[in-house]
Design goal:
Number of strands: 7
CATH superfamily of the largest domain: P-loop containing nucleotide triphosphate hydrolases
Helix content: 40-55%
Distance between the termini: 44 Å
Number of helices: 12
Shape: globular
CATH architecture of the largest domain: 3-Layer(aba) Sandwich
Largest sheet: 7 strands, mixed
Radius of gyration: 18 Å
Number of domains: 2
């Protein structure tokens, strides 16, 4: 399979990669000889590095994110005839870009558009970890959750209903104990199914905003989608604009968001995009 030069999924091609090659290059990630790119996200101390090492083995290297002192690790694996590049994102508790780590992780998910985001959760601290999972689901619906440290959960007498969690989140949830390599085959299968379009995620997104905020988001989403047709995460962009996120404002000004949609913004639309900057 050859990687397309754009990150947009071809019409009717559920198995095509969706990553954005040019933006990945800007982020220092090359896709030569790789079919799919997977972002590995998670809170600190969830065993994310153990998952990364177990999946990639010795096929990995480290570096920094462009313009940052934040370390990035990359590795790879093969599964069912496809080659996957795995990018280990900084461990974060949120994606609000309040730190260089959060900004690096957020920018990769938003602008790189990985084919799958594998979020590692600590099975002993599900409620705490769900905050990041829900934020990731606001940006992308191509998500697999690795419910790691199941051995610790069992040791503490905890039971986690992964099937109910998967149903509530709308994405695959795979129990695992990476240190013992338990569940990793199932993780690989879930990643493969999402990457190739065999499994279509239907993520659950929070819709209980106050009425005034809900109206503001709905109005702004309409304006954003008219400027950037096909943008896959207009609702999340609207929320970040209302919060005054400077990085998103810059992405609108520079037209970066337009590159993520299915149609490039026209000159008139670009003028309207500038007006969006003033929305708070």
């Amino acid at each position: 399979m050859t990687t397309p030069t754009t990150g947009s999924m071809a019409a009717g091609c559920a198995a095509c990669p969706v990553h954005h090659v040019q933006n990945l290059l800007k982020l220092g990630v090359t896709m030569d000889n790789w079919n799919f790119v997977v972002g590995l996200a998670g809170n600190p101390n969830t065993g994310k590095s153990t998952v990364f090492n177990a999946l990639t083995g010795l096929r990995q290297h480290t570096g920094n994110w462009p313009g940052k002192t934040v370390t990035r690790a990359e590795g790879g694996f093969e599964y069912h005839g496809h080659r996957y590049k795995l990018v280990d994102l900084p461990g974060t508790y949120s994606l609000l870009a309040a730190s260089p780590d959060e900004e690096a992780a957020r920018d990769f998910l938003l602008f790189g558009r990985p084919d799958v985001t594998l979020v590692v959760m600590d099975a002993t601290r599900v409620e705490r970890n769900l905050n990041l999972v829900l934020q990731v689901l606001e940006i992308t619906d191509r998500v697999v959750v690795c419910l790691n440290l199941m051995d610790e959960a069992r040791r503490h007498g905890l039971q986690v209903d992964d099937r109910t969690l998967a149903r509530e989140l709308g994405v695959p949830v795979v129990p695992a104990s990476a240190r013992y390599r338990e569940g990793l085959d199932q993780v690989l299968q879930a990643v493969s199914e999402v990457a190739t379009g065999q499994f279509i995620c239907k993520p659950r997104r929070i819709q209980n905003e106050p009425p005034d905020l809900k109206r503001a988001v709905a109005e702004l989403v309409c304006r954003i989608e008219s400027v950037f047709p096909g943008l896959p995460n207009a609702r999340w962009v609207a929320l970040r604009l209302l919060d005054g996120d400077e990085r998103i404002i810059q992405a609108i000004r520079k037209g970066e968001l337009g590159e993520l949609g299915s149609v490039s913004p026209s000159e008139t639309a670009t003028t309207e995009a500038v007006r969006l900057e003033g929305v708070r």
